Prior knowledge:
Layout: H1 6-18, H2 26-39, E1 46-50, E2 59-64, E3 73-78, H3 87-90, E4 95-97, E5 100-102, H4 106-125, E6 133-138, H5 149-156, E7 161-164, E8 174-175, E9 180-189, E10 193-194, H6 205-217, E11 227-235, E12 241-242, E13 245-254, H7 257-268, E14 278-287, H8 294-307, E15 316-317, H9 326-331, E16 336-337, E17 344-345, E18 353-355, H10 359-372
Parallel strand pairs: 3-6, 3-7, 7-16, 8-15
Antiparallel strand pairs: 1-2, 2-6, 4-5, 5-18, 9-13, 9-14, 10-12, 11-13, 17-18
Helix pairs in contact: 1-4, 4-10
The structure holds zinc ion.
Zinc ion (ZN) binds next to helix 4.
Amino acid sequence: MSEFETKEMIEGISRWVHCESPTADPAAVNxxxxxxxxEFADVPVHVERLPGGDGLGDCLIVSAGPENGxxxxxxxxxIDTVHPIGTLANDNPVRxxxxxxxxxxxxxMKGGAxxxxxxxxxxxxxxxxxxxxxxxxxxxxxxxxxxxxxLIEARAEGAAYVLVTExxxxxxxxxxxxxxxxxxxxxxxGIPAHSGSGQDVGRSAIREAAHQILAIEALNDEARGVSATxxxxxxxxxxxxxxxxxxxxxxxxxREAEDAARLDAFVRNLEPRCPDVKIRVEGRIxxxxxxxxxxxxxxxxxxxxxSRAYGLPLEELPLALGGSDxxxxxxxxxxxxxxxxxxxxxxxxxxxxxxxTSILPRTNLLRDLMAQL
Length: 373
Ligand SMILES: [Zn+2]
């Protein structure tokens, strides 16, 4: 018998979806953090609210369970979304159509966050958590967790496991590996000159950028799971001027840790073809690759033993192409399971919706995992 009721869960998730929280609007994100904090008002938990810096909302860390020297468990949910304020009113109002619950962020990831919160809260109330569990509600996952990465890594240190409530993959699958990613800005500075009379003294930053872009895109290697994309370019001041400045932005994705290091070194050490053009590089590997380790395979097997009781086979997606906060913890060797949230479709789009029938079994599963793992 489940203590969770579908009707109440839908109401709770809808309440959270109604509180729009785009990452870049810290006041909105903090209203959402207020809502999460209110859920724990009468629950015996320890609550920390850490102020966000740099235009980000706050981070809420809620802990409960026995403090007996055993390693703790960590649960991660982000409560920011990619949808600007007004999406709810204009483009994707909260509504139910058959088994579908629509709304901005309902799948990624307010649904999963509410389910995880409900499971954790119920165990905290009944003092049934299997170990000390630290639950982080973070404000900035959708921009690469620029403000909370260090916090997540610190709280993951020594953890027995990390559970992440990102949406389930089609068929209810969980995620046991994700590619890593990196972002770099490449600034080039040449020597400006008149395009008619200055060809001998001018050194084109755009021409140099063209060479470097081709070299970077040549790193694409589908077999190794490497993608290298230059998606933004700017440069020059006028058609009749040899350009002094150019700039482009690089996006890397990679499956293997060694490729992360190789790509990082490659872009940092770009050698100008024309020695008079200066190249300056900013950026970093933003998310290390999340590889399925032995420990992750074991964790997956244990979770599957539990999930079968709810008719959830919880097959794995062998490699998710995008990243999440799971990348940070898995890369540090902590057994991490992602994709434990709600099922649905259309994340990051105006069609975003969750599947209502996935709510109860997956909330029950999360509760069992926090009680047993
Ligand atoms: Zn997400």
